[in-house]
From TrEMBL:
GO MF term set: carbohydrate binding; peptide-N4-(N-acetyl-beta-glucosaminyl)asparagine amidase activity
Signal peptide: 1-24
Domain of life according to the entry: Bacteria
Natural source organism: Posidoniimonas corsicana
Residue ranges occupied by any Glycosyl hydrolase family 92 N-terminal domain in the UniProt entry: 30-258
Gene3D superfamilies, per the entry: 2.70.98.10, alpha-1,2-mannosidase, alpha-1,2-mannosidases domains, GH92 mannosidase domain
A GO term from the CC aspect: cytosol
Matches recorded under InterPro entries: 6-hairpin_glycosidase_sf, GH-type_carb-bd, GH92_a_mannosidase_put, GH92_N, Glyco_hydro_92, PNGase
Entry's Gene Ontology BP terms: carbohydrate metabolic process; glycoprotein catabolic process
Keywords: Hydrolase, Signal
SUPFAM superfamilies listed in its UniProt record: Six-hairpin glycosidases (SSF48208)
Protein name: Glycosyl hydrolase family 92
NCBIfam families the UniProt entry points to: aman2_put (TIGR01180)
Length: 778
């Protein structure tokens, strides 16, 4: 395999020092942050970052656009080191320079060439040389503070720029302010301009401290430089400090950020950065990453697969961001004016959970929901708490909050499967009654399903929920504003989300709601065309939408959000038995699904972003990421074993800077999916059932050990042992659970949570008599 050969080559060269000097206990050396960085999104790459860190510090080689921005592997120049790489959020760009001062002229004038030859990249640490200036730059972080260590050339004065008014990623900066506080400290803020997704201007504050006094404070507005001022404020404003040449060539800069206030940023610095030991912070970051990564341990398998597994896991713990201060304060932007709120505190006066910002959980039922509720239930608890707090603050359980704003990104109410998976696995460290109240509100007019994608106006209606309630489906001619107004996709996702609400209602003893939502969960049948054996969009008068085609061109086929009918027609994760029945039975269903995979192998089972409507199978986007596992429900588990392995290797197996995620990793979702396929566990129902099941496929490793969080699950550890594991041996010949024969292709969550050992015997040919009993589907 070319990708395997290249990955092994990269392990031995200086440009990928993540593969050198490793020991068995340091899993961070199995993470390659540079995978697929040739064409990444702003939030994709954050090297000097803690898990879910508020600070996501890394070099920026491209600073304009949500796509193809941030750190791009083939770019030759570093423009700045900025502290926020989040969905719809950016801020606080910093850059060291020497020689003639050009900071006020913009990044095009002060950027510097760098080389991968001297670059070191690990989780929590990044080092490179700015060749134009001869400066060695090192970056690390705590959760809320960014640490820079700059080694300047001997005998030269140096500057550290704070280009706080510069355009970064998603939009411009309305205004910024920086003030000199003392000879070793400056402070300020940037006001990020609103975007089409984040509807309000959003402020980020910072305090920067230096390890030695600076000689001069410089500032500028609109390119006009001022010397000696005490501060600066305005549009296109920025500042810098100058250090005299010194025998001590190093300057350490530690920067605290906050979304509440300058004092909040200062408190974050005091709480997390009370010393000046850069190497200690780096060691502590490595230790923290190892604690998180070690919840899943693997042995055996190809080195390439171990690298991709831990890189996938790193992404699943990286992309979504903490936005609350160390004391639990956070900025609520759900109403007309910003308000400072505070998280619940424990008996010691510490926040019980952090507050998070994140892109929509759209599609996370087949990725993060499963992984987090299995190996990181404390994370799932924290996200549930954030959504309940936002319900109390602004009246809605969010779809995807950014900087305290509601964003209405994508469609539907993906929080429903998230809460159902958490609650039904015993993850309940939040106000469950408030959560259910908010989720129920979302399922009717006036809730989040009333809003189509990015529909911010007061009188929303593009989500079509009233039509869904009245007609049993969302018509394609529903009207209203917003994006992604795709009636068939909305109908299918609402039906699944209704089933998830039914599971919650049953757990809470709400029988009438259970019956209501179970009935509504069958609404997918309203759009089933028995002759075509596909889901088809309907109009308000009940007629089929004219001009229907199973696939299309570009992003979306009309009626289907970033996909098409050939993919969305399988989107019934809550009732696969019912779907297979109306599709002509198990044999007919499996035959057609298998044909789709066979025809998609040459394109590696991906459409690549921007062409999602064109393919029969698309593992580059959320709606189709369960399809390989659906053969289990048609009584042909060997086909799931075959296609899961093929998809994992072809679609997401690359470990070079030129593949692995196809540019749309979506804040850990594709990473989490990669982890699940690699360890051989998946949940088609998203884990939302009252005792949901894990479908089993062959892992890529000899042994997988999942550490079970003792506060949630009693079992201690769940092990998967794969006998005869190899690339070719993807078929399960036999299985045993805790020493007893297992002749089904699934395990219940309660069996996994109890701990123990699943032993699989693998082979190169299918065993067509093993595991034929389909997983429960209700």
């Amino acid at each position: 395999m070319k990708s395997l050969q290249l990955a092994l080559t990269l392990l031995s060269v200086g440009s990928c020092c993540w593969g050198r000097g490793a020991n068995a206990d340091d899993l961070t050396h199995l993470v390659n942050p540079q995978i697929d960085t040739h064409k990444s999104r702003w939030f994709y790459f954050s090297s000097a970052c803690r898990p879910f860190g508020m600070v996501n510090l890394s070099p920026d080689t491209s600073t304009k656009g949500s796509w193809n921005s941030g750190y791009l592997y083939d770019d030759e120049f570093v423009r700045c080191f900025s502290h926020i790489h989040a969905w719809q959020m950016s801020g606080i760009p910093v850059m060291p320079t020497t020689g003639e001062f050009r900071g006020h002229l913009g990044m095009d004038e002060y950027k510097s060439r760098y080389s991968h030859d001297s670059e070191i990249v690990h989780p929590g640490y990044h080092k490179l040389t700015l060749e134009r200036y001869g400066i060695d730059a090192e970056l690390t972080s705590t959760c809320r503070t960014g640490w820079h260590r700059y080694t300047f050339p001997a005998g030269e004065a140096g500057y550290v720029l704070f280009d706080t008014g510069a355009f970064l990623a998603h939009g411009g900066v309305v205004a910024s302010s920086v003030s000199r506080v003392g000879p070793t400290e400056i402070a300020g803020w940037s006001l990020m301009e609103r975007t089409s997704r984040r509807p309000k201007d959003t402020r980020v504050f910072f305090v920067a401290r230096f390890s030695r006094p600076f000689e001069e404070f410089l500032s500028w507005v609109g390119g006009e430089l001022t010397l000696g001022a005490a501060g600066v404020e305005g549009a296109e404003a920025g500042s810098a400090v100058r250090f005299a040449a010194s025998a001590d060539r190093q300057v350490i800069v530690k920067i605290g950020i906050s979304y509440t206030s300058i004092e909040g940023a200062r408190r974050n610095l005091d709480a997390e950065a009370s010393h000046w030991d850069f190497d200690r912070v780096r060691r502590e970051s490595t230790q923290e990453w190892n604690e998180w990564l070690s919840r899943i341990r693997v042995t055996g398998g190809h080195p390439e697969h171990r690298i991709k597994l831990y890189t996938d896991l790193w992404h699943a713990l990286l992309g979504r961001r903490i936005v609350s201060d160390a004391d639990g304060s956070y900025c609520d932007m759900t109403r007309t004016r910003p308000r400072i709120q505070r998280k619940r505190l424990n008996a010691q006066g510490e926040p019980v959970y952090a507050h998070y910002a994140f892109d929509a959980l759209w599609g996370s039922h087949w990725s993060l929901n499963i992984l987090w509720t299995l190996a990181y239930p404390d994370v799932a608890d924290g996200f549930c708490n954030t959504m309940v707090d936002m319900y109390r603050d602004g009246g809605l359980i969010p779809r995807g909050p950014s900087g305290g704003n509601y964003t209405y990104v994508m469609i539907g109410d993906p929080a429903a499967p998230f809460f159902a998976a958490a609650h039904n696995k015993g993850i309940r460290g939040y106000d469950v009654d408030a959560a259910y109240e908010g989720l129920r509100k979302n399922a009717f007019p006036g809730g989040i399903r009333d809003r189509a994608g990015y529909e911010h106006q007061a009188n929303a209606g593009g989500g079509g929920i009233k039509h869904y309630v009245d007609l049993g489906y969302v018509p394609e001619d529903m009207g209203g504003g917003g994006a992604h107004r795709d009636g068939a996709a909305m109908t299918l996702e609402y039906a699944y989300q209704d089933w998830c609400l039914a599971q919650l209602a049953r757990s809470l003893g709400k029988d009438s709601d259970y019956n209501l939502f179970m009935k509504r969960s069958q609404n997918y049948r309203s759009l089933w065309d028995g002759e075509a054996r596909l889901v088809r969009p309907r109009m308000k008068d009940g007629s089929w939408m004219p001009g229907f085609t199973p696939t299309g061109k570009g992003m979306s086929c009309r009626g289907f959000c970033e996909s098409n009918s050939m993919i969305y027609s399988h989107f019934v994760p809550h009732d696969m038995k019912g779907l297979i029945g109306i599709a002509g039975g198990a044999e007919a269903y499996a035959t057609r699904l298998n044909e789709s995979f066979e025809q998609s192998a040459s394109s590696r089972f991906v459409a690549d972003h921007g062409r999602h409507a064109e393919k029969l199978v698309d593992y580059d986007n959320q709606p189709g990421t369960a399809m390989a596992h659906l053969f289990n429900y048609a009584g042909k588990p060997w086909l799931s074993q075959k296609w899961v392995r093929e998809v994992k290797l072809k679609a997401h197996g690359d470990t070079t800077p030129y593949g692995g995620y196809h540019g749309d990793e979506d804040q850990g979702q594709m990473g989490a999916l990669g982890v699940l396929m690699a360890i051989g566990l998946f949940q088609v129902d998203g884990g939302a059932g009252s005792d949901s099941v894990y479908e089993i496929t062959a892992p890529l490793f000899d042994e997988v050990r999942v550490q079970l969080h003792g506060a949630y699950f009693p079992g201690g550890e769940f092990r998967i042992v794969a006998r005869n594991q190899s690339l070719e041996n993807c078929y399960i010949q036999s299985a045993a659970l805790n020493g007893r024969e297992l002749n089904r292709c699934w395990l219940s969550h309660s069996e996994v949570a109890a701990g123990g050992t699943l032993e699989l015997v693998l082979g190169a040919s299918p065993n067509r008599s093993w595991g034929l009993e389909p997983p429960p589907s209700r």
